[in-house]
Structures are given as structure tokens and as C-alpha cells.
Amino acid sequence: AQSVSQHNHHVILSEAASLELGCNYSYGGTVNLFWYVQYPGQHLQLLLKYFSGDPLVKGIKGFEAEFIKSKFSFNLRKPSVQWSDTAEYFCAVNAYGQNFVFGPGTRLSVLP
Amino acid sequence: DTAVSQTPKYLVTQMGNDKSIKCEQNLGHDTMYWYKQDSKKFLKIMFSYNNKELIINETVPNRFSPKSPDKAHLNLHINSLELGDSAVYFCASSPLASGGLGETQYFGPGTRLLVL
Fold first, then answer.
1. Using CA atoms, how far apart are residues B58 and B50, in angstroms rounded to an integer?
2. Per the CB 3.0–4.6 Å rule, which of A23, A110, B27, B72 could disulfide with A91?
3. What is the pLDDT of residues A68-95, one digit of tens each?
4. Are the beta carbons of B104 and A46 separated by less than 8 Å?
5. Which chain A residues contact residue B48 at CB under 8 A?
């Protein structure tokens, strides 16, 4: 079964700083990859997803992620964060015949 | 026009009680899920139903029983509630059968359960 790890438990940034959240998965076969965001007190919303094709995917709110197959990674990036990006970010992996698996989450706090 | 809805939003109850959480999706999806998110925000799948049929049943106490009257509804009934059941429970749905590639999950707003 696949597993998902996220490098940072809690990231604190100032507004306008650049963001990169790490995500690695363990599964040798074909996977679909996702980033979800959970704003305080709210449900999970899909930020972006990778199924196939261009490994650099763009999502909502200026986020993007790059799939690097050789590194089993799918890191999330944003060039300039805003206070409103404060949230919990979850990486998730879906492989054929496997459950949808979420990483442990990374809490992002953006200071105004 | 809510896609995935849950009721109630908050649930406070005493240990030993029995409670139910309801979930409905109007997306026409075939598969629905229940997840538990603990106090550390860790998300764990509990159940998955595809067209009213149980597909995934992770290691969950049998006090938890899902019921799917039709493919748009997946309710969660919990017997003899315990302190450790306190968590946020999320319902989700996806268009494909669980385990299929190309699956995106859409989440409900969550039900915050507090057992006293």
C-alpha cells in the first residue's frame, strides 16, 4: 500500500514570501496526485491535481505543483503568499486498486 | 447548490449514547466515503460505498455502522459513543469507484463530534 509523507509539520512565513511544501509518496506504479487545502474550521477543498501530461500543474489561487517521478515527489509552490493562505495543506495519492491516502498535513501560518 | 452536505454540523453528546450523522451528495457520484480527522488533523478513511455497496471497511470498531439507502446518501451511525470518538467526521464523494485512477474526491463541510 502507498504512503504519503509531508516534510514540514508547521511552516511560518511572512506575507509575500515564497512557499514550497514538500510531499513524497511511496508507490512504484501509476499514481494520481492531489493537494487539498483546509481553511480554519472548513472542509477540504481541491487546490490542484495531477493525472498525466505536463508534470507542472497549476491550481487555484496562484498555487502550482511539480510532479517529479524519479523523486516520488509532488511539491506545492506559491511565489508570494498572503495572509489568507493560512490553512492546513494535505497532499494525497491515489493509485489503482489502492485507497485514497492523505499525508499528515502541513500547517501554514502567514504573518501579516 | 451544495455539492456534499452533512448534518449536523456540530454534535455534543454523552458517553454511551448512540448518534447518527447524515451525508448527501447531489453530484451524481457513484462512490461515497467517511473519513475521521483527529485533533492532530490526521485524516483516515473509514468506509467507502460504491452504488450502495460497501467497498472499503478499514479497521474501525463495529460500533460504527454506515448505511447507504441510495447512492446519493451515506449515513454514519455510532453506537455506545466513547471519548476517543471525538473528532471531525468528513463525508466525501467521487465519480469513480474507489481504487480507480482519475478519482477526485469532493468533501462535505464536516461534523464536529464531541463526546463528554
1. 15
2. A23
3. 999 999 999 999 999 999 999 999 998 8
4. yes
5. 99
CA atoms within 13 A on the CB side of B8: 9
Average pLDDT over every residue of A1-28: 92
Out of B45, B92, B101, whose CB is closest to A30?
B101
Q: Which chain A residues contact residue B32 at CB under 8 A?
A: none
- Count Cα atoms within 13 angstroms, Cβ side, for B103: 30
Among A43, A88, A94, select the one facing B103 at the smallest CB separation.
A94
Q: Is a pLDDT exceeding 90 seen at residue B41? A: no
Under the banding of pLDDT at 50, 70 and 90, the label for residue B52 is confident
Burial of A96 (0-12, 13-18, 19+ CB in 10 A): middle
For B42-46, what is the mean pLDDT? 88
Provide the b/e sequence for B51-67 (b: ≥16 CB within 10 Å): eeeebbeeebeeebebe
According to DSSP, the residues that pair with A38 across neighbouring strands are A44, A88
**Distance (Å, whole) CA A36 – CA B57:** 23
**What pLDDT, in 10s, does the model give residues A19-34?**
999 999 998 788 899 9
Residues of B within 8 A of A49 (CB-CB) are 104
Residues 71-110 of A with CB under 8 A from B: 88, 90, 92, 94-100, 102, 104-105, 107
Average confidence score pLDDT of chain B:
88
